[in-house]
Each structure stands twice: as C-alpha cells, then as structure tokens.
C-alpha cells in the first residue's frame, strides 16, 4: 500500500517543475492534477511576506470573504448575552451560550472552528484564553469575531469568511478551497486573499512585500506562483 502511494507521490512530484514559476491559474489547475488523496483535500495558499511579525504594526491579522467559500462548513460558537441568543441561532450559529459554554471549554471541549463574541463578554472569555489562544480560537476585533452584530458575523463565517494571521516567520497560511473546486474558483478565492494582503501592507514594511506564493493541497508537492502575475 505504501509503495503504491509512493509511486503516486513520485508521479505527482514529476509533474511539478521545482524551479518553474506558474501563473496563479496554472498553479490551481496543476494542484488538482497532482493531488494524491482520495478525499476532497484542502487547497492552501502559503504567502511569504517581507515583514517583521515581531513589530506590532507588522503582525498582520485580518479576515476575508472568499467569493466561493472554503468548501467546508465551519462550526460556529456564539458567546452572547441572553437577549442575543435567538439572533445568533437564527443566523446559523451551531452553539450559543455564555457561562455554560465557557465552563464546557474550560473542561476541555473545543469541537468548534470559530468563536464569535460580544465585546461585553470578553472579560469572561479571557479566563479561557490559554485554551483558545494556542488553537487559534480566541475572538479578536481585527478578524471581526468580537462584535456587537453577532448575527451578521455568524452569517458571514457561514458564507465563507475566513480569518488569517501571519506566523512568526512572516508567512500567511490559508485554505482557499478544496480540490473539487474548479481552477477558476480556486483562483478567485486566492486572488481575494492576496489582494486583501496587498491592501494591508504596513507602511513600515521595506523592500519586496510579497516574497513568494506557494499553492499546495493537503498531500501534494508545493507549486510556486510567479508573484508578478498577481500584482
């Protein structure tokens, strides 16, 4: 079985020219061809930026609404005051509550993808920050997950809004769809993320801003994108 998978991986690797820079559209067509999984794998974009994440004004984080969604239904928890519970449920939140949900998370439950909270409950949410933080679940105003309009925020996440943040190496990693998507839809989603990052360029960032862009599915080789074809 492993040798069969090895052959598939070698065949996939042989289709990608390591030194070649592809257009975004060609990269998305190719990533579908070289995917070796039997499941509908995630297609991810890895964008290396010329920034220093240790500087507060260059530690980018934000959100973007992908025009075609991610292909994955996000499980959303809304932490709200009792008067907003019904609005959050009607907007599509999978879990709604406050003290009961915070206690549940404190007990080890984290079977969720996104948490949206009202500003006035953040003091309580802070008590479970050490659990949420490492998992990327901590609500944040910069990503639109701390807001008075919880219903709208829930609705946007359900329709394909995603959050992203730069890691300590200056790289943004984000899913832009699944291998079942057409190359056009994957390109549309990737362009939306890239243009959002371009708009967020810190004024203090020096030199080349977008250093490299790589496309890969869950188990595929990385495909390098010519950054000149994006800007």
Task: Offer a concise description of the structure.
The protein has 231 residues and is of the alpha/beta class.
Would you mind describing this structure in some detail?
It contains 8 helices and 9 strands. It has 231 residues and is of the alpha/beta class. The protein has a 4-stranded antiparallel sheet with strand order 7-1-8-9. A 3-stranded parallel sheet has the order 4-3-5, sandwiched between helices. Strands 2-6 form a two-stranded antiparallel sheet. Helix 2 (24-33) packs across helix 8 (183-199). The chain is globular. It starts with a helix and ends in a 6-residue tail after the last strand.
Give the termini distance in whole angstroms. 43 Å
Number of continuous helical runs: 8
- Proportion of residues in helical segments: 25-40%
Mean pLDDT: 89
Could you state the order of secondary-structure elements as H and E? HHEEEHEHEHHHEEHEE
Q: So what's the overall shape?
A: globular
Label the structural class. Answer: alpha/beta
Proportion of residues in extended strands: 15-25%
Reading side by side through the largest sheet, how are the strands ordered? 7-1-8-9
Query: Uncertain segments of ≥5 residues (pLDDT<50)?
Result: none
Number of strands: 9
Describe the main β-sheet briefly.
4 strands, antiparallel
* Cα-atom radius of gyration: 19 Å
């Amino acid at each position: 079985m492993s040798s069969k998978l090895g052959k598939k991986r070698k065949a996939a690797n042989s289709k990608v020219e390591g030194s070649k820079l592809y257009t975004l559209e060609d990269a998305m067509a190719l990533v579908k061809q070289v995917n070796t999984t039997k499941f509908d794998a995630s297609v991810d974009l890895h964008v290396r930026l010329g920034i220093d994440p240790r500087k507060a004004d260059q530690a980018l984080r934000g959100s973007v609404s992908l025009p075609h969604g991610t292909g994955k239904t996000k499980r959303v928890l809304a932490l709200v005051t009792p008067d907003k519970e019904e609005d959050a449920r009607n907007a599509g939140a999978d879990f709604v509550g406050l003290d009961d949900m915070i206690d549940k998370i404190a007990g080890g439950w984290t079977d969720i993808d996104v948490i949206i909270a009202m500003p006035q409950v953040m003091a309580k949410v802070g008590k479970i920050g050490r659990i949420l933080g490492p998992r990327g679940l901590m609500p944040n105003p910069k990503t639109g997950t701390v807001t008075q309009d919880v219903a709208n925020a829930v609705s946007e996440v359900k329709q394909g809004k995603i959050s992203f943040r730069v890691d300590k190496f200056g790289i943004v990693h984000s899913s832009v769809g699944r291998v079942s998507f057409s190359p056009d839809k994957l390109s549309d989603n990737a362009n939306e993320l890239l243009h959002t990052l371009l708009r967020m360029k810190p004024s203090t960032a020096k030199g080349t801003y977008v250093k490299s862009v790589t496309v890969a599915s869950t188990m595929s080789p990385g495909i390098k994108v010519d950054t000149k074809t994006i800007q």
